[in-house]
Automatic annotation (TrEMBL), chains A, B, C, D, E, F, G:
Family: Belongs to the GroES chaperonin family.
Protein's name in the database: Co-chaperonin GroES
Gene Ontology molecular function terms on file: ATP binding; metal ion binding; protein folding chaperone; protein-folding chaperone binding; unfolded protein binding
Localisation per UniProt entry: Cytoplasm
Function noted in UniProt: Together with the chaperonin GroEL, plays an essential role in assisting protein folding. The GroEL-GroES system forms a nano-cage that allows encapsulation of the non-native substrate proteins and provides a physical environment optimized to promote and accelerate protein folding. GroES binds to the apical surface of the GroEL ring, thereby capping the opening of the GroEL channel.
PROSITE patterns cross-referenced by the UniProt entry: CHAPERONINS_CPN10
Top-level division of the source organism's lineage: Bacteria
Length: 93, 93, 93, 93, 93, 93, 93
């Protein structure tokens, strides 16, 4: 189990479609870096003027995050991404 | 549905007129990057000294924003822009 | 109508005299960038330690502002400048 | 009349002596930029943790200021300098 | 005994496996810098708006930390790493 | 009289010995910039979270300061240095 | 006597062993800059949100500090180092 600290969030990136709109299959190197992920775990929250406030995202949320944000880590067999909540742009339902 | 976090706002850019004042139709590359947009969704607000305050813009507002601000994302078929309220300069009615 | 956000102010630049002290008419390119403007609209105020405080300038004020500050926008036929109150140096009466 | 905003101060620079210690008259270009000025007008004050506090300098004070600080403006026939109180180093009596 | 100050943490890096997935033994220079460590000692805490708050990690925790963060020190025979809690990304159980 | 503002301090530098340990008289250019001075005047204090607190150094103190800190000014015949209290490292008795 | 200001600390560096593990005596230039020191004097404390808090280290402590931190000063015959408490990483007993 992985437990991020403070305002950090653990994500699993969601791979983009491997076909372009016109149906061409893209080789690995031509695919854009994914910017969407599923929240695996969230930190205990962050401090705002001395008060601890809970994070806005929760486990299981599907989110859009800033490209190149965070740190890639390998936990067991999984490639995960740890980033701060401020790098999460929006929740998509 | 897309739900921006904190002080973030989701916009749909409004395309500038494709004709110059003198009536010449501009090719795509000569058009200025749009700086106006329609607000699609707003975040839950931001913290000011420990108190959460609501954002000044609301869904449906027509706004002017800082050129090059924010992150372009594709949600379904829509090209959207996610930026912070501080990148919104003014509301135009 | 244009409504600037927070501590932002909308100005209309006041063109400098087109003659030098010795009476020579200056071509467009030799004129200094104007640093004076008339306030068209003011934002709702800014936060100081969690309290919202009103701006010091008001609609109609004639102000001196920092050269190159702000963002030029075109609203209808008007070329306006949107800047933060901290870019306004002084009010001239 | 010129009314600086917030923690800003309007100064009139005091020209340095045009003779060196040995009595040689200096040409314009060899004179050091003046670092002393007379306070013409002071802003309404600045915020410290949400409380507005008055400035330490007042109209008529003779001050030493940081070289190259501030913005030179021409108001009517006067060349003035607008700077922040933090650029004022000391009051000289 | 080593007692880190404030929000600092003393770690002992955990060496990565010396074999790749396919069983090849890696020479020293081809191994990635370890990003996992065991907490040896934690500081007394940090200040949040004037209140001292305890750290989230505790002695014995297995943590993931930011690559290149902190300072390597040699205490007796041990090579240790001293870093700030903000450089700890997550606790792994 | 010179009255520094806020957290500023006026110093008179104390010239270092002009002989090296071995008794060689140093030419002007080989002498290190002095880092010690005598406090001539102190400002009214600085703000800490909205409360004004007095400075730690007082007139007449012999202090060590950061090399190259502050601004050199000439007041009458005296070469003085104006710096912030944070550039004062220690008081030497 | 030397009295550091605020959150500053005066250290005397502790010279590293002049022999390597294998017993080779190192010439001066091959020795690493010492990162350990003995606390000679501590400042009066620092402000946290308007409250003055005492420093964590005290006179006589043996500490590890950030390489290249602080300012080297000569007081009488002693070569001392003045640094901020935030440059002290840990106390070693």
């Amino acid at each position: 189990m992985i437990k991020p600290l403070g305002d950090r969030i653990v994500l699993q990136a969601i791979e983009q479609e491997e076909k372009t709109a016109s149906g061409i299959v893209l080789p690995e190197s031509a695919k854009e870096k994914p910017q969407e992920g599923k929240v695996i775990a969230v930190g205990t929250g962050r401090y705002e003027n001395g008060q601890k406030v809970a994070l806005e995202v929760k486990e299981g949320d599907h989110v859009i995050f800033s490209k190149y944000a965070g740190t890639e880590v390998k936990v067991g067999e999984d490639d995960l991404l740890i980033l701060r909540e401020s790098d999460i742009l929006a929740i998509v339902n």
